[in-house]
Design a protein that fits this description.
The complex is a heterodimer of chains A (513) and B (159). Chain A is built from 21 helices and 16 strands. Chain A has 513 residues and is α/β, with parallel strands linked by helices. Chain A has 4 domains: 98 residues, Glutaredoxin (3-Layer(aba) Sandwich); 210 residues, Rossmann fold (3-Layer(aba) Sandwich); 91 residues, Ubiquitin-like (UB roll), CATH 3.10.20.600; 83 residues, NADH-ubiquinone oxidoreductase 51kDa subunit, iron-sulphur binding domain (de novo design (two linked rop proteins)). In chain A, the strands form 4 sheets. Chain A has a 5-stranded mixed sheet with strand order 2-1-3-4-5, covered by helices on one side. Chain A has a 5-stranded mixed sheet with strand order 13-12-16-14-15. In chain A, strands 8-7-6-9 form a 4-stranded parallel sheet, with helices on both faces. In chain A, helix 19 packs antiparallel against helix 21. Chain B is 44% helix and 13% strand. Chain B is built from 7 helices and 5 strands; from the N terminus they run ααααβααββββα. In chain B, helix 1 packs antiparallel against helix 2, helix 1 runs parallel beside helix 3 and helix 3 packs across helix 4. Chain B starts with 5 loop residues before the first helix and ends in a 6-residue tail after the last helix. Classes of the chains: A alpha/beta (513), B alpha+beta (159). At the A-B interface, helix 1, strand 12, strand 16 and helix 17 of A face helix 2, helix 4, helix 5 and strand 5 of B.
Chain lengths: 513, 159
């Protein structure tokens, strides 16, 4: 009998040698005349165990990790193909405590299935949401999304159903569904993992969106830094076409939906929705003034849905299981689950999908196991480079849009970057301003000039020039950028700076050169 | 302005003509040019502008807006070192200093022997395995200075 071995093709796993491990397993199997089929799956998200390989046995899928090429011969010696015990044995994958406690809805198939196979996707519940949506009135599909309480997972947390309803209510004509896959926030990789590990879920979500609002064309705006996701998406789109889930007759419904991937070109600002639309149209990614909203006048001037990858990928589950089932997860106005990304200086980094409401402390210590360096965690930055730095005294805050806003922070795309006590917060504040200066689109003055002046003011503080006065000046500059910028880049880049000043003032002192 | 060898000029012309019918084609065209030539030469700008019926200024504006588009011929191997927060928390600053020293160049430069170009990048989405480096489209995680040297050695010219 042919043994089934899973070796991730996820970029993160590949970055730790999964490609070499897959090759070594194939070669070793050939040498030993063992019948082995290697399936390249996505990552389960437990990156500290990557490369994590799995074998299908009568006892279910058993995991081994982290595996290097040096371990491969030993795994064969230990008869891992039949679940044999080895120093790297992790037992049943689903029973690994770090994974077992998670509530994987959006990520239920990531790391489980072969991302290139429509058949495998369907076998694991795929396309049931679309089938359901096709049996409903478009307005009822939109209503289901509204009832589910789903909010934009890209960071803005705007109710998805309201956005869709606005597009639905526009007169018939060319409408678009666009997916913002410009995942530029440091500390985030949920979009990438999903696109590489279960791209058909995103494709299905966009197809449902198209059918719900009457859009026949979709675009995925993917950042150029994700070549692996590009390959995965193109393969999956071709497979969905082949299986007639895309094209002129979606799943035999007579409805059309086409999908295309467009590549960004290394501009962080293109994660802002109007800038993304400009870029999709082939122009400089300069922010548009709103109104009009993209839902009314978006891509090429037509009504357009702009949603993040995780938002759209949550749609199939909601249609399949019902809006109430989704809304039953979560707390307050944050309904459903969030794929949280633990990153940076943390022992057990990776993706944790859980209902809203667990605390940062649970994430950092129960899941994360403390810092990677073993030193005390001093702060975490939540929500990317525009997110506030949160001190240890606030680690009991819940992962919830409103709870984080309540302490002057923001959840954003759900990335948490961990820093130990060696971090220099004045330098991190300087970096926030520097990043804004590098990435500003230049359209509005507070962002374009303010960020550059911000770097200079922080430099003067660190040089000991008029320290007190310059700290006050920095505070005023931050306030001006927050109030006066056209979009979230200049408007939020001061958040890390202000939080660093608020919680870590002691770091803003003159340095001995 | 530099002039393009006729073969390269023909490549640019063909790419622009092939893609001009697509909606909002300019980024697609520039990506295809960079994939074919390794960079977007200044002399490609008027050709693209002509074919797409845009002004040179518009095309130049787009090329220069996006960090990903290179305007000079890159080294044989493109090395990007992530500079973002997650990688900083795991020693990206020291790794970057090592990379500069090792290659003898700063960001946006190409080594004298033409073998390596060094670029900053702001997040490779490998934040659970920081610090991250990308070389020729291959992603590497938990990169120590020693591992960095080994990765470069793998790309050394064969003796």
């Amino acid at each position: 009998m042919t043994a089934l071995v899973y070796v991730p093709i996820d970029a993160g796993a590949l970055s730790l040698g999964a490609g070499e491990v897959a090759r070594a397993i194939t070669e070793e199997a050939a040498r030993r005349r063992a019948a082995v089929k290697v399936v390249r799956n996505g990552s389960r998200g437990a990156y500290w165990l990557e490369p994590l390989i799995e074998v299908l046995t009568p006892r279910g899928r058993l995991a081994y990790g982290p595996v290097t090429i040096a371990d491969v011969a030993g795994l064969f010696d230990a008869d891992f193909l039949n679940g044999g015990s080895h120093a790297l044995s992790l037992g049943a994958t689903e029973a690994i405590p770090w994974l077992k406690g998670q509530q994987r809805l959006t990520f239920e198939r990531v790391g489980v299935i072969d991302p290139t196979s429509v058949a495998d996707y369907v076998k694991h519940g795929g396309y049931q949401g679309l089938t359901r949506a096709l049996s409903m009135e478009p307005a009822a599909v939109v209503q289901a999304i509204t009832t589910s309480g789903l909010r934009g997972r890209g960071g803005a947390a705007f109710p998805t159903g309201i956005k869709w309803k606005t597009v639905l209510d526009q007169p018939a004509g060319q409408k678009y569904v666009t997916c913002n896959a410009d995942e530029g926030d440091s500390g985030t990789f949920a979009d990438r993992m999903l696109m590489e590990g279960d791209p058909l879920t995103l494709i299905e979500g966009m197809t449902i969106a198209g059918i719900a609002v009457g859009a026949t064309q979709g675009y995925i705006y993917l950042r150029a830094e994700y070549p692996h996701a590009l390959r995965a998406l193109r393969t999956a789109i071709a497979a969905a076409h082949q299986a007639r889930y895309l094209g002129s007759d979606v799943a035999g419904s007579g409805k059309r939906f086409e999908l295309e991937v467009r590549l960004g070109a290394g501009a962080y600002i293109c994660g802002e929705e109007t800038s993304m639309l400009e870029s999709l149209e082939g122009r400089r990614g300069e922010v548009r003034v709103r109104p009009p909203l993209p839902a009314i006048k978006g891509l090429f001037g037509q009504p357009t849905i702009v949603n993040n990858v995780v938002t759209l990928a949550s749609v199939p589950w909601i249609l399949q299981h019902g809006a109430d089932a989704y809304a039953n997860f979560g707390m307050g106005k944050s309904r459903g689950t969030l794929p949280i990304q633990l990153a940076g200086n943390i022992r057990r980094a990776g993706l944790v999908e859980r209902a809203f409401g667990l605390t940062l402390r649970e994430l950092l210590y129960d899941y994360g196991g403390g810092s990677a360096t073993g030193r005390p965690i001093r702060t975490v930055q939540v929500g990317g480079p525009l997110g506030a730095y949160i001190p240890a005294s606030q680690f009991d805050t819940a992962v919830d849009y409103e709870a984080l806003a309540g302490i002057g922070a923001m959840l954003g795309h759900g990335g948490i970057v961990v820093f130990d006590d060696s971090v220099d917060m004045a330098r991190m504040a300087r970096y926030a301003m520097e990043f804004c200066a590098i990435e500003s689109c230049g359209k509005c003055t507070p962002c374009r000039i303010g960020s550059t002046r911000g770097v200079e003011v922080i430099d003067r503080i660190l040089e000991g020039v008029d320290g007190e006065r310059n700290v006050r000046l920095l505070e005023e500059l931050c306030e001006l950028m927050v109030q006066g910028s056209l979009c979230g880049l200049g408007g939020m880049a001061p958040f890390p700076v202000q939080s660093a000043l608020r919680h870590f003032r002691e770091d803003f002192r003159a340095r001995v050169r | 302005m530099e002039t393009l060898p006729p073969a390269e000029s023909a490549v640019v012309q063909r790419i622009a003509s092939d893609l001009k019918g697509r909606p909002g084609p300019l980024l697609e065209v520039l990506h295809a040019i960079q994939a074919a030539l390794g960079y977007v030469p200044g002399a490609a700008v008027p050709i693209v502008a002509e074919v797409l019926n845009l002004s040179r200024a518009e095309v130049h504006g787009v090329v220069t807006f996006y960090h990903y588009f290179r305007r000079s011929r890159p080294g044989a191997h493109a090395v990007s070192v992530c500079q973002a927060e997650s990688c900083q928390s795991m020693g990206a600053e020291a790794l970057t200093a090592h990379a500069r020293r090792r290659l003898g160049i700063d960001f946006h430069q190409t080594s004298a022997d033409g073998r390596f170009s060094l670029e900053p990048v702001y997040c490779l989405g490998n934040c659970a395995c920081s610090p991250a480096v990308m070389i020729d489209g291959q992603l590497y995680g938990r990169v120590t200075p020693e591992r960095f040297d080994a990765l470069l050695a793998d790309r050394a010219p064969s003796p």
